Amino acid sequence: MNLRARVYVENQKKDVQAQLEAHLASLKAKGLDSQTISRDATTRKLQAMVRKALFRLASIAAQEKLNQERIKAKADKLAAEKAAREKPKVEEKAAEEKGKKEKKEKKEKKEKPPKAEKPAKGEPKKPKEEKKAEKPEAE
After folding, report:
1. Spans of the chain, pLDDT less than 70
2. Residue 69 located in a structural domain
3. I need a labelling partner for 135 at 20 to 30 A (CA). Which of 81, 122, 125, 127 fits?
């Protein structure tokens, strides 16, 4: 349903309701009972037009609600995309700061003396038996 038609449908409904009330008043003035009035063709036609207008207004309201939800979802999606674009920038800054800290730690580690010197390539390695003998046994 065309959302701009809301005003026109509301006006039609008001007009038809006014016609229905006038027709019902004229039938009551003639002295007809309620059963005869309810079976009158003009009365039924006017009541149908009112129901039709109410149905159109309901569909317009449902469409407007759906459009509002779509607008909100679109705004949320754009906000999430914007946040996602900004997040890597923040992460890059954090990574740069972390990288600077790691570089400082690496420099500090390099300044420490090595733990134990390894024998040169040309020197023979200690036999396995001597290594065992060097270690005191814990008994």
Report:
1. 1, 89-91, 99-139
2. yes
3. 122
- Domain range for residue 52? 3-110
Which contacts (CB < 8 Å, 24+ apart) does range 26-35 have?
A: none
Distance CA 58, CA 62 (A): 6
| DSSP label of 43 | H
Angle value at C-alpha 82, between 76 and 86, nearest 5 degrees:
140
The total of structural domains in the chain comes to 1
pLDDT, tens digit, 9 for 90 and up, residues 78-111: 999 988 888 776 667 777 777 666 666 666 666 6
> Which run of H or E residues covers position 46?
helix 41-111
Q: Are 46 and 97 in contact (CB under 8 A)?
A: no
0.85 surpassed by pTM: no
Q: How many residues does the chain have?
A: 139
User: Under a CB-based contact definition with an 8 Å cutoff, are residues 77 and 40 in contact?
Assistant: no
